[in-house]
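REVIEWER CHECKLIST
Item 1: Sequence provided? yes
Item 2: Single chain? yes
Item 3: Sequence as submitted:
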Amino acid sequence: MFTIDDLWKIFDTLKGEEPVPDITEVIESLAKSEKGKTIEFFNNTINQNSFNTDDYLRFKDFLIDWYASHKTITSLQSQISDPHSMPDSHLDELFRSFGYLYSSNKISLVSSKYSVNQNKVNLFLDLVNLYKIKGTPRSIIEILSYYGLTKVDLYEFWLERESLNKVIFRGKQTISSTKYKDDYILDFDEMILNDPHWMLTESQVLQLNLNNKINLPSRTPYFAIRPVYNFREINGSLTIISRVIQDQYLEFINTGTITNQNAPISTFGKTCSLLELYLSCVYIFNKIYTTGISPINIFSCYNGTKTDYSDIIEDYNNLTSLSPKTRDERELKLAEFYNLFTRSESTNFLKNENTAGVILKEINLELYDHLTYSFDSNDLDLVISLLIDLGDWIKLQINLSYINISYVIFGLFTFIEEIKEVVNFFKPYRARMKSVELFEFDNPLSESVRVGEIVDERIHHTIVDFVESDGDLLDSTSAENCSWPCPDSISSCMGSRRDTYDCGSYYDIGAITDECEIIVDYDNWNSITGNFGDSSFIYPVPTGFNL
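Item 4: Structure as written out by the authors:
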């Protein structure tokens, strides 16, 4: 299990070089113990005063480190029983011996420089239990949690008859790690699109059901995994990213170097600073897409004094997750949020779409040339790879439950590419996966409205109790032309085409014989101008309707 590379890693550790990859605290402690025993052996058995020359002492130091490195490997192989003491590469070998080949690349969490991948150790210890429930919804949900997907819903689809001539697929939630309990419905054609294993058409399904060959609803081989993208969690992590790259750029301007080199870039095959990784993402993204200009003069960036990422995330959640009760409270909390998690746009070193490339070229010309020569405008793989590297850094350093930003930008196919091998290993053999997504906007501070004024709504109606004729029934000079007897003997039918009360009566009697329209005028409050304006609506009156 141990290789010559492991020997030299232990050797470098004993020489005092740090950090050395894949050397855990247990291995380092054992190596130092073996070195102490070796020094004691040389002092008590081998050393002779006559040979204490400078050359001998240098050679003795080399022999002690070399022998102690060999002895460390021997002791580990004979005594190791705890996976917490094993380096990452040895854990991968254990996974392969169990038949699980997907352990090394995407399992979340590597903490301090000497710690093992705690999540990988936990998965290895849990692997036997997962094998027992392999093929169940529970096994898929649990295995995805080790890969940082803590908010996932799993649906199983049933074929149902929606109407006489229509069949649908209804996804019923089987197991969930979220609060959402809704069904998910897909049209027949949408579900079977590009599936060579589905043989029946919709009409054939309906005919088979009609002939009692099959019964509906019927369980299908389709299932879906729905990740929940919480934008509050994403934005909270990005404010930290923005602050880190601002600080690293300032360090580069002042010193010409960047101290913290802990961001692997897969396509480059090297570990660089987060600033270089971020600039690479922006540089390639802007070569493919045109981005807009922010209409406001601030940008997201943590502006406080705390250095512990978990404390910063906690402050962000405390500010944004609580719903303010009043308008004054909301304004106060917003001012606090802007002060703590934003900066003035004038302080941002990224000025336009070309800035990232210019600065990256200045900081790391080799990386800039590699990205430039590797770029293909018709290929998204490069920008997706960079964004996945950025998301992995965030998971590693800030937030284990962070949903990779590439999933949000480029859709579900990047999500499926990341986890399909793992899901295929634990799903039932003939089950076929579909993916759906849910975006969760959970920021009551900025997404709520609290009004401070009382709205007093008053509507003025003018009810018109007479109807203007179309002019065919009356003229303004002759009472004999009234088509309806006047009930009031002292009144006459003199009028101006019934634009006043008919025959002096309180109601317009002529309306019962007219086919016309009633026009109602009323005053309408205009909230924009702050004034009342005239409005009207018209509706027809059928023949014989008596007002």
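Item 5: Key structural point noted by reviewer: Residues 54-79 form the longest helix (26 residues).
Item 6: Recommendation: ____
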